[in-house]
Every structure is written in structure tokens, then in C-alpha cells.
Amino acid sequence: MPKQRPKVLEQHITAQSHFFKVEALHLEFSNGERRVYERLTGGQAGAVMVVPVTADGQLLLVREYAAATERYELSFPKGAIDAGETAQQAANRELQEEIGFAAEKWQLLKEVTVAPSFFGGVMQIFVADELYPSRLLGDEPEPLIVESIPIEQALSLIDRPEFSEARTIAALYLFHQWWQNRG
Question: Quick count: other Cβ atoms within 10 Å of Cβ 146?
């Protein structure tokens, strides 16, 4: 049986940066307990991640610097949904900016969250198929390195230390399941 949602007694911004705001939520639960939760807000349009599949059965990934881990990470193309874009339009734009391809066929695999107790952002994960060359200028500070791996070897990415981002791992498993079940 679903519980009654807590009552929001107060909410206000406690800190902010160029990308995020920290919001304090003063909540009262149905049993009378009160708590203050903090959550990150920002990027309300959401984000996308794309698993690009080439005609010869390769998955394309990008290697780019991640400031939080202070190393180069290997992941699928991803980025924010800009104002006025649909998720699929954002996915196609990110694909062109990061790996120099666009796609004719799209499949939404799943919408995922990360740490939903603290961050409300959602990411939609797509498969992009029937790729064709198309490049858009992106906002990356340096050229991204594009790597490919045969679909049959894709799960071996799990063993690579630079393939560690949870959403990318989720995308890999979602893709693998979809690929095995496609008709």
C-alpha cells in the first residue's frame, strides 16, 4: 500500500553554482516525524545517453576527462537535454558532437535516475542504429577519443577500470538484454 507523501513545510536554496543548486526541503511525514533533506536541482530537462551501434556490429564509446575522478573515463556519448529539445533530438545532437555520427533508427531502452534521494535528474538511454557521418561542434575542451568494441565482446568492458560510471554500466546491461531479445 503506497504511503502518503510527506508534507513540504518549507523549501529554499542553500547554495548554488553555475550548474547546480542545493535545495533544503523541510518535510513532515505522516507519523509526525520531521526531517530536513537536501537535494541537488538543475538540469530539469534531463539528460540522455546513447549506445551507438555500427553496421558492422561495433559499439562506439568516448574517452573523456572526468574532473571528479581526475582521470579519463570510457563511456557512451551523453549530455544534457537543451531547452526546446526532445530527448531523441538531444541524443542525436550529442551523438554528432561527440562521435561525428547521426542515426536513422532510435530505441529508448529506459529512463534512469542516480541517487534519487538527493538528485532529481533523469537520464534517458537510447540505442542509435543506422549511423551516418554527421558532425556538430560540441562544448568539450579537447577532442574526444572514440573507441569501438565488437558487440560480442561488450560485456568485457566491465573489467576495464576506466569503464566505471554507473549509468554507463546500466546502459551496457540494458543494451545487452535488448540485443539478446530483439526480434
Answer: 15
Element (H, E) at 89: helix 87-99
pLDDT score of 19: 72
Q: Which residues contact 147 (CB under 8 A, 6 or more apart)?
A: 60, 61, 62, 63, 74
Residue 131: pLDDT over 90: yes
Share in percent of the chain as helix, strand, coil (round to 5): 20, 45, 35
Residue 16 has which C-alpha cell?
Answer: 548554488
* Nearby residues of 96 by Cβ (< 8 Å), 6 or more positions away: 102, 134, 135, 136
Any idea where the domains of the chain sit in the sequence? 7-41, 47-181
CATH number of the domain at 47-181, out of 3.40.30.10, 3.40.50.300, 1.20.1250.20, 3.90.79.10?
Answer: 3.90.79.10
Q: What is the pLDDT of residues 148-160, one digit of tens each?
A: 999 999 999 999 9
**Spatial separation of the C-alpha atoms in residues 77 and 84, rounded to whole Å:** 20
67 Cβ neighbours under 8 A, 6+ residues apart = none
In degrees, rounded to 5, the angle at the alpha carbon of residue 172 between the alpha carbons of residues 100 and 49 is 45
Q: In this predicted model, what pLDDT tens digit does every residue of 10-63 receive, in sequence order?
A: 999 999 987 778 889 899 898 999 999 888 876 567 899 999 999 999 999 999
